[in-house]
Design brief:
Number of strands: 18
Domain FAD-binding PCMH-type: 45-226
CATH architecture of the largest domain: 2-Layer Sandwich
Pfam families: FAD-oxidase_C, FAD_binding_4
CATH topology of the largest domain: Uridine Diphospho-n-acetylenolpyruvylglucosamine Reductase, domain 3
Largest sheet: 7 strands, antiparallel
Number of helices: 16
Family: Belongs to the FAD-binding oxidoreductase/transferase type 4 family.
Shape: globular
Helix content: 25-40%
CATH class of the largest domain: Alpha Beta
Strand content: 15-25%
Strand order of the largest sheet: 15-12-14-13-17-18-16
Keywords: FAD, Flavoprotein
InterPro entries: FAD-bd_oxidored_4_C, FAD-bd_PCMH, FAD-bd_PCMH-like_sf, FAD-bd_PCMH_sub1, FAD-bd_PCMH_sub2, FAD-linked_Oxase-like_C, FAD-oxidored/transferase_4, Oxid_FAD_bind_N
Number of domains: 4
Structural class: alpha+beta
């Protein structure tokens, strides 16, 4: 991996330069002001920074990056700071500059005839969704953190969410990018083209790179017709295998009208019911539940199909939302799982992907291995069964036992990730590597893959100044 330049300027000199670029109010250097930017959402990673810079335009981002490059100072790009892998948190040395992109929050253009929206990287995901809805369009990326997370971060981690089943990850939703390179140069690739066969598709270098190759400042994103009606249902199933069979059956009948299919374990639901006020269990207790959403399907057709599944025993019980408010309550049960876990305490989290057909195999293998190694372990499993992405989080029910259990994370990770790898899966489905899995990935990626990634990093960021310590 490239090494950071060793020449270290006086902090005051660089800060004065940055103040000259963005203004004194947009350079934070007091510890109390910096604090929110150097701690990750989970409270797991805490770092330090020379300062936090908040540019208001691409030109200011470019000038800041150039100034840091000339000074040999590392840059940590940061969006909404919702990373679950420490990808936007600086190290503890305090030498890096945090580049906060929240002021780049403009919707630059909406082209309804081309079904695209062009936005700056600091727009929250919710703001992009709202701008699309205002012109009767859908931007389908949907995450629990959508009110806080920013498009630049979504792009940098290739975020997934609940509608990947129908629309794909962020990568599939992106047509063009604008990126400030580690040199301070700007690559303007803001083209809303669905076909452009003129060499390497450079945008894919930066999507999923977690800010290690450059700073995404704007993007052209795909829009879709806004569904006129949606049918949301909560269904009880006996096993993960039954959930996968139900998914297969639903896709064969409804195809693209099936836009979400989420799996929730009883342990996950219990945490929400315990820690999130106003939460209510839909239906009877079941070891596993599915939250399914159908868009622009005839509600009567969905209900008839579900009735047949109840008769056949494929579904044990079910609730169909009778209103938008009821649908929102069902979705809140799913979307509040991470928040409920955070309230409960720190857990060992995994964001993994396996072929959809092997979901039940993974859960059986991982559950068995962990129960044997750590008797009494609590498994909180949930996720996007429609695309094979599971969030598999582990803790002990008692807080005192859990503190000791957390020291076993290397062993826990090895058991989980080996089970994933044995099924040709991935140890990071949608959260990225950050600093959490930077070393762990070396066990599962081939030397050829790692060498290719390091070669790309060396060419674009030879001095290793872009988000050092992440991914590689």
């Amino acid at each position: 991996m490239p090494t950071t330049m060793t020449s270290t300027p006086k902090s005051s000199d660089l800060i004065s330069t940055l103040v000259g670029i963005v203004g004194a109010a947009q350079v934070l250097s007091e510890p109390a002001d910096i604090a929110p930017f150097v701690t990750d959402w989970r409270g797991r990673y805490r770092g330090a920074a020379r300062c936090v810079v908040r540019p208001g335009s691409t030109a200011e981002v470019a000038a800041v990056v150039k100034a840091c490059a000339e000074a040999g100072v590392a840059i940590v790009p940061q969006g909404g700071n919702t990373s679950l892998c420490g990808a936007a948190t600086p190290d503890v040395a305090g030498a890096a500059v945090v580049l906060s992109l929240g002021r780049l929050n403009r919707v630059l253009a909406v082209d309804t005839r081309n079904n695209t929206i062009t936005v700056e990287a600091g727009c929250t995901l919710a703001a992009v969704q709202e701008a699309a809805c205002a012109v009767d369009r859908l931007f389908p990326l949907a995450l629990a953190s959508e009110g806080t997370c920013q498009i630049g971060g979504n792009l940098s981690t290739n975020a997934g969410g609940v509608q990947v089943l129908r629309y794909g990850n962020t990568r599939e939703l992106t047509l063009g990018l604008e990126v400030v390179l580690p040199s301070g140069e700007v690559w303007d690739g803001l083209r809303g083209l669905r076909k452009d066969n003129t060499g390497y598709d450079l945008k894919h270098l930066f999507i999923g790179a977690e800010g290690t190759l450059g700073v995404i400042t704007a993007a052209v994103l795909k829009l879709f017709p806004l569904p006129k009606r949606q049918t949301t249902c909560w269904l009880n199933v006996a096993t993960p295998a039954a959930a996968v069979d139900l998914l297969t059956a639903a896709k064969s009948v409804f195809d693209a009208q099936l836009t979400a299919f989420e799996l929730v374990s009883e342990n996950a639901l219990q945490l929400v019911l315990k820690n999130i006020p106003g939460s209510q269990r839909p239906g009877v207790v079941s070891p596993w539940c599915v939250l399914a959403e159908f868009s622009d399907a005839e509600p009567a057709a969905v209900e008839a199909w579900l009735a047949a599944r109840l008769v056949s025993g494929e579904v044990g019980d079910g609730v169909v939302a009778a209103s938008e408010a009821q649908a929102g309550k069902l979705w809140a049960l799913r979307e509040n799982i991470s928040e409920a876990q955070k309230i409960e305490g720190i857990s060992i989290k995994h964001d993994v992907a396996v072929p959809v057909s092997r979901i039940a195999d993974f859960l059986a293998a991982a559950d068995a291995a962990l129960s044997q190694a750590f008797p009494g372990i609590r498994v909180v499993a949930f996720g996007h069964v429609g695309d094979g992405n599971l969030h598999y989080n582990l803790s002990k029910p008692d807080a005192l036992d859990n503190a000791a259990f957390l020291t076993s994370q290397p062993q826990v990770n090895r058991l989980v990730h080996d089970a994933v790898h044995a099924l040709n899966g991935s140890i990071s489905a949608e959260h990225g590597l950050g600093q959490l899995k930077r070393e762990e990935i070396l066990r599962y990626k081939s030397p050829v893959e790692m060498a290719l990634m390091r070669s790309i990093k060396q060419v674009l960021d030879p001095h290793g100044l872009m988000n050092p310590g992440k991914v590689l």
